[in-house]
Amino acid sequence: MNRIAHAFMLTGVRGVGKTTTARILARALNCTGVDGNGGPTPDPCGVCANCVAILADRHPDVVEMDAASNTGVDDVREIIEATRFKPLSARIKVFIIDEVHMLSRNAFNALLKTLEEPPPHVKFVFATTEIRKVPVTVLSRCQRFDLRRVAVAELSAHFSRIARLENIAIAPEALDHIARAADGSVRDGLSLLDQAIARGSEDGTEISAEMVAEMLGLSDRGYVFELMEAVMAGDAAAALAVTDTAHARGADLGVLIADLLGLAHLLTRLKSVPALATSNALPEAERTRGLALAAGLSIPWLGRLWQMLLKGVAEVEAAPDRRAAAEMIIIRLCHVADMPPPGDLIKKLEQQAAQNSMGGSAGGGSPGGTRAVANGAPMQAVAAPRAITFQDVVALAGAKHDVMLYAHLRQSVHLVKFAPPVIEMRLELDAPRDMAQRLGALLEAETNRRWTIVISQAAGEPTIADGERQAENAARQHATDHPLVRAIMEAFPGARIEKLHAAPEPIADEAPPDWLELAPPDDVYNEEED
């Protein structure tokens, strides 16, 4: 008994058995065995007086408190007062506090002293779904146990046993729907199973997967796979036809987009972990169809699909018309299906630049031109090939939303040499120490080749930000020196150049046109009147 912790912390999602485990622990501590002479045991008998009373929730020495409705100091003080008295009939007095994270700060502080120096006849069992909200001072005095989510396969098998015992006919696919919707919670899954049984037919016919999907507000999995196939093919018409059919059947298109997101995750797992192809964690139909889809996809494509769908789910929730938002997302997905990834574009640019540099102008082919691409059509080729520059590298950091790296590349880097895959540069003092590693990792991930980033002490070129400021100052000075601008500023004392805009054609440095007649000062008029 001296080696048993005086306080236990049980944490996990709702409905995984935290309170049930606490009651089992109370029985294990107080079980006396069938003959009444037993001691604490990991396998309580369930027939002794203490076990029976605890199971019936009427044992005077096992106290349960719901901290969600008893959050104050006074409630905790009642427990502290009760710890002073020895148990009436049990070996150990057990206090079970459910949702302990709901206690107030003062209540936790009042409980700390008792947790630090607990009486030998008292054990505490805490249960919570929000372990982060429990003070560290309390956690450090408890033995913690994390109750994991129950796997979908285990939940489905458990629900199947219950349905068989209750003589309920229900399709295995329907049980899979319920198990996935339960999200690892046995209690939530049992509640959904009760709802499905209540909605089921009274004539003894099997509860179908379609009925359960309708009850849960899910879209038919067949629609999700058909929609993914249409997106992969870039067929917007077929994708919208599937969407219209699902909507006509009563499916929520926001849920359809979310299911498409889940399918993207499933395909990525099948592509990354081949062992899932032989696992029983997935239904046979989904595993077979998912493997067929994943075979024609790449991880980068699935990653882009995931990012677009993740944003799409939020767009649907925020849009005033959910159907219109969902259809726009699907059309967008179809038109980027054939677009090459950024890494392939960069590699193709490098290859074409290398070919141009080696071949020069010796070839007799027609000069390169820019091919027009219709609005919305997938881009199949790279137009106007050119060698990549350091500005392209900076733009890549901005496109990847690496704000810190993008800012430092513009403001803290003096380029010394740029010869892909080698970049030599001098850093300002405010540049981060890991900047070279971050830049190299970004370029390697995009181009699938190793880049060498050399930190030099050479002067190098001005930073991009300095260069832009110098160019702006030069342009401003050039504009100020223009005769037309100078004449206007002389005509309007105090005027200044607020903003510069690039002109479609350069303005010649010429004298003001004849039609620009500046009004003479007032004294000239006065002289003429005289």
Briefly say what this structure is.
With 530 residues, the protein is of the alpha/beta class. Helix content is 51%, strand content 8%. The chain is built from 22 helices and eight strands.
Characterization of this structure:
- With 530 residues, the chain is of the alpha/beta class.
- The chain has 4 domains: 7-146, 3-Layer(aba) Sandwich (Rossmann fold); 152-216, Helicase, Ruva Protein, domain 3 (Orthogonal Bundle); 221-335, Zinc Finger, Delta Prime, domain 3 (Up-down Bundle), CATH 1.20.272; 340-356 and 384-530.
- The chain is 51% helix and 8% strand.
- The protein contains 22 helices and 8 strands.
- The chain has helices at 18-30, 49-55, 73-82, 105-116, 136-139, 152-165, 172-182, 186-199, 209-216, 221-233, 236-248, 253-272, 284-294, 299-318, 322-335, 342-359, 390-399, 403-411, 435-447, 464-481, 483-491, 522-529; strands spanning 7-11, 62-66, 93-98, 122-128, 143-146, 413-419, 422-427, 452-455.
- The strands form 2 sheets. It has a 5-stranded parallel β-sheet, with helices on one face. The protein has a 3-stranded mixed β-sheet with strand order 6-7-8.
- Strand 6 (413-419) and strand 7 (422-427) form a beta hairpin.
- The longest helix has 20 residues, at 253-272.
- It is extended, with a radius of gyration of 36 Å.
- Mean pLDDT is 81; it is low at 360-385 and 506-530.
